[in-house]
Amino acid sequence: SDSLLRVSPKALLSSGLVVLPSPASDPPPSSAGSATLRNHRQQQQQQLMASTFLSTIHQRTRELNKWVQKQEGSSSSAPGSTPPPSLKDDLDALQRLLSRIEAVLHDAEEREILDDSVRLWLRDLRKVAYDADDVLDEYEYQRLRDEAQARIQDQVSPDVADQKRKSVEQVSGSTTTPPPSVDALYWDTIASKVKKIRGDFEEISEQRLSLGLRTEDGRRRHGNSGHPPPTSSVIDVFQAQMLGRERELDKLINGLLLSDQSSRSDLSVIPVVGMGGVGKTTLVQHVYNHPRICEGFGLRGWVCVSTHFDLTVLTKRIFESFTSTACDLTELDPIQRKLIEVLKGKRFLLVLDDVWNEEGELWDKLRAPLVYGEKGSAVISTTRSAIAARIMQTSGESICRLECLSYDSCWTIFQYYAFHGLNSSDSRELVEIGQKIVKRCGGLPLAARALGSMLRYESEVDSWENVLQSEIWDFDDRKGGILPALMLSYVHLPPHLKRCFVYCSLFSKDHRFQKDELVLLWVAQGFIQCKGRRQVEDIAATYVDELIHRSLFQYRDSEDTSTFVMHDLIHDLAQYNSRSEYCRIEREVLYDPSHTRHLSIATRSHDIAELLASLPSSTAGGLRTLHLFDVKEIRGLSNMLMSNLRGLRTLALSDQHIRELPDSVGELKHLRHLDLSGTDIAKLPQTLCNLHHLHTLLLRRCKHLDTLPEVVLKLANLRCLEYSRYL
């Protein structure tokens, strides 16, 4: 089956897979009385404060503290198995420290854009937080392991286990006993590590005072975010309009349809040039999907090129876009021949979006098979580079240059997204501030849409005024190309969305996201804050919806609401704010490995095993994500290499030619997400049963894996299992 299975621990232990229905959403707050509304709003603000990257540590510290108190008061504890008194004192102090630091995080995250000292403070804080999370996660792993061993013992000798429980209950009046591995050495180790964590956070807390970070409740910046309007499969009709570009739209459509009447026999190439965020891709999308174009071109294809102009990869993707079938070939010549077969005798339209290549020779080689199409075939390219446009342009075709939109057009876009569903005339103060904000967008529709989507959730004048007066409008990063308006849309994201958004920088600019894909990855990293009885996956799905409503994700086309993409400038924004903590290797080597926690690799120019082995041990051990994409063939991972990656939460090896996993995979005690889809795996190691934290195991298209081993059924924390041998 290729369907998503949510698996309960009890179902796994009984050797069955049970699909759990999603529970109903939490009921909306009562609207009876202003006091009730105020209380609900206060609860929302408390939830926002608890959604920072320290929230997981805070929660786990509380859980460990409860366990310590329980063991201190347990009369059934064996001599030497009770925690030292200093441990509870350190845990209490740690909780107070975390509360103080969390109170200033909103201010710090806004100031880090312009203040290097605050940026360094946050970097140090995140390092301490990661280390603390690892320590607390090890405690949790120990507890899960002991519970698993107890279950196995119960299954082997149920009579003995039952007699032991009755004996304990008679003596202490409780059925709870400490795990068998909890002894004096265990408590001393935990106490020592917690004391170090406390010391590290005390140093961080003292530094916050010297930086002058102010305490905020998050209300002014985030308003009532976190509760976007419900979504549906119907696409917003406003997105189907072509605002302010009607003349360019008609000119492009007419030029394409008349290209077969030209006396010229070669391929027609029309470049669309303009700065980032000006609407090049949006314009071409409207051309591509126009009914006259769909009727006039029997074959259409769309490829996002981006900065890496790899001839073999691009030719393969052009073939796949035209045919909607995968191409397994790896050499350029046979791929070009297959593409020529597809194009012969057909009139086609190809869109090459976001082209950066300025080398004429590379373009000539990519163009070579395209000239075999029927007369009247055409290519539209979008680019920020005038040089790239001139290289691709064919004689007789003019370059379509897009300038910034008029103020009126930008205001219409902003007004639609900011006041969607409301009458803007009822909010005169907000309209006046909004008009001033639009003037600062510089005629860029992407900026107007992003800020309008962000302010849709803000109803207070102070919140809008705060955006208008923000120092971030003075932000200048010409090298990174980050627009101040887009940076504002990031700064004003609720904390729980910031981490999820930045995580997407691990993927390529043209990556087609699926909701289930992101949900599972975010859950594995602990980004999702549980609320009530709702399943964590359901909450994560609402995070995706929020990012779509804020225009940070956009649907790939109007007919497919299951797939969405990031605009290249939005991807740049995610990459910029990821700093060195998230790193994607395509051609370059790792720039600053000392701070990297999440790593994706998509390069054929490096041997992956050697690249990973070359990482400093502290970096390899601190990695939380390793995601391999289109990489040089890798046949396996050594025991030593796997042991070095001991901190991983996510290991994604899909579509790699890996035949077996080493036994040392069982040492990845923090692992939550393991993706082996499309690999040549024929057998899973027995040590997989040691992955007590594992939430997700993906085994799609594992054609050599005949059966699921019994070891999978012993993974009590497993929530999602996908297994299929074929598509």
UniProtKB/TrEMBL annotation:
Gene3D superfamilies, sorted: 1.20.5.4130, Helical domain of apoptotic protease-activating factors, P-loop containing nucleotide triphosphate hydrolases, Ribonuclease Inhibitor, Winged helix-like DNA-binding domain superfamily/Winged helix DNA-binding domain
The name this protein goes by in its record: Putative disease resistance protein RGA3
Pfam families to which the protein is assigned, alphabetical: LRR_14, NB-ARC, Rx_N, WHD_DRP
Family the entry assigns: Belongs to the disease resistance NB-LRR family.
Disease resistance protein winged helix domain ranges (all copies): 506-574
Domain Disease resistance N-terminal span(s) in chain numbering: 86-149
Entry keyword Transcription: no
Lineage: Eukaryota, Viridiplantae, Streptophyta, Embryophyta, Tracheophyta
Organism this protein belongs to: Anthurium amnicola
UniProt superkingdom: Eukaryota
One GO biological process term: innate immune response-activating signaling pathway
Residue segments, region Disordered: 18-45, 66-89, 153-181, 213-233
Disease resistance R13L4/SHOC-2-like LRR domain span: 616-722
Name of encoding gene: RGA3_49
InterPro entries with a match to the protein in the record: Apaf_helical, LRR_dom_sf, LRR_R13L4/SHOC2-like, NB-ARC, P-loop_NTPase, Rx_N, WH-like_DNA-bd_sf, WHD_DRP
